[in-house]
Amino acid sequence: MLKTLIIFLLLTVPALAQPWPQTPPPIGQLYLKQEYWNYIKEAAQKYQISPYLIQAVCAIESRYDKDAKSGRCFGLMQLHRDTAKKYGVDPRNPRENIMGGAAVLASLMQRYNGDIRKVLRTYNSTSTAAYEREVFRAYNQAQQFETSSLVDGKLNKRRN
Question: Phi/psi class of residue 75: alpha, beta or left (left: φ > 0; alpha: ψ in -120 to 50)?
């Protein structure tokens, strides 16, 4: 009952009031730098979206590689050069890359009324069903880490 209540509250409390962990939750074998987690939390607060969605996109798009490049997309969130210009960010700067990517995700979340599948399909124009599964799996892993940590009353690594 308590776990259900906590999950309900996490889904309904505005992003600003979320009790996010101080350290980033692990996703598979990937570990996010603390610096990037701080940027993600900042972006989540600014754009009122889940930090776990931002983290999942970073994990799957770049495997947390700030120097990742694919065509005209750069950085942690594989921000397209033209999109970065539109949002006034440097896609090669990790903080700005995350802020720009979060701005895009927030805009898409509004456009598609929170339908994450549509958001992901638009965010990554070459999105495949496998890509969506990977992002959802990463998103769920991060959220499960947090909810299990909150229920336990401490931030322990989630067992796989």
Answer: left
Per-residue pLDDT for 26 more than 50? yes
Distance between CA atoms of residues 32 and 116, nearest Å: 22
Measured between alpha carbons, how far is 79 from 49 in angstroms, rounded to an integer?
Answer: 17
Residues 95/97/103/105 CA torsion (nearest 10 deg): -120
Nearest one of 68, 73, 56 to 119, comparing CA atoms: 56
The pairing of beta strand 79-80 with beta strand 73-74: antiparallel
Cβ count near 150 (within 10 Å) = 18
Q: Residue range 73-92: average pLDDT?
A: 95
Catalytic (active-site) positions: 61
**Cβ neighbourhood burial of 160 (10 Å; 0-12, 13-18, 19+):** exposed
DSSP codes, 46-106: HHTS-HHHHHHHHHHHHTT-TT-EETTEETTTTEEHHHHHHHT--TTSHHHHHHHHHHHHH
Helix (H, G, I), strand (E, B) or coil at 45: helix
pLDDT tens digits, 86-103: 999 999 999 999 999 999
